[in-house]
Design goal:
- With about 200 residues, the protein is an all-alpha fold.
- It contains ten helices and no strands.
- The chain has one domain (about 1-195).
- About 70% of the residues lie in helices and about 0% in strands.
- α8 (about 145-160) packs antiparallel against α9.
- The radius of gyration is 17 Å and the shape is globular.
């Protein structure tokens, strides 16, 4: 049980490192009080510029990847496991997302989790993100709504689990549904503004 607590605490703390807020503070502002009020890459791009937005995106994706790398390192040194190694990765992904969206370092107000989830799934299996990324690009080119494109990508990720040979990732279907619901929740303001016709295009 001790290694379980260490894994989840570690991945949560790594997820809590918010590059958008750090970069904003360096430049003398809080992204949460600017633009959409979100601390993610899209708002950083709008407020701080393209370079900053790209930096925040890759930083958030990298921490998702790194969180699962740490998880795997701890699991590989543990003699007794309560779950399969892939389940530890999926659970760590959830804690990294919670850390990103509700960071302890920043009064529990962070981003929406898409880039962090992308980096984590890239660690688990790069094949998983191919069709969701393509779906994101198609949705974005058609609508110019980042929120809608992100939701579409994670929905495609969930749908593709019906056709993937899960192999050792035997709980992939359930976890992908859970992640999709989480992304829906964090993008609820985007859904509301799209319904009202006030969502900003990129």
């Amino acid at each position: 049980m001790l290694h379980l607590g260490i894994i989840f605490l570690t991945t949560y703390l790594v997820g809590s490192i918010n590059f958008g807020l750090i970069l904003g503070y360096i430049q003398g502002l809080d992204l949460r009080s600017q633009g959409s009020g979100n601390a993610g890459a899209t708002n950083a791009l709008r407020i701080l510029g393209a370079r900053s937005g790209i930096f925040v995106f890759f930083g958030d994706a990298l921490k998702g990847y790194f969180a699962l790398y740490l998880c795997e390192s701890i699991v590989s040194q543990s003699e007794v496991l309560l779950f399969s190694s892939s389940d530890y990765l999926f659970l760590s992904l959830i804690f990294a997302l919670i850390g990103h969206c509700y960071p302890i370092w920043f009064n529990f107000r962070g981003g929406k989790g898409a880039a962090t989830a992308l980096g984590a799934f890239l660690f688990i299996d790069p094949y998983f993100i191919l069709f969701p990324v393509i779906g994101f690009l198609f949705a974005f080119l058609a609508s110019r709504f980042v929120g809608l494109s992100t939701i579409s990508a994670f929905f495609i990720f969930f749908l593709q689990t019906f056709f993937i040979d899960h192999g050792i990732h035997h709980n992939l279907h359930a976890f992908s549904l859970l992640i999709f619901i989480f992304i829906l929740y964090t993008h609820r303001s985007n859904i509301e503004s799209m319904y009202k016709g006030t969502e900003a295009k990129l």
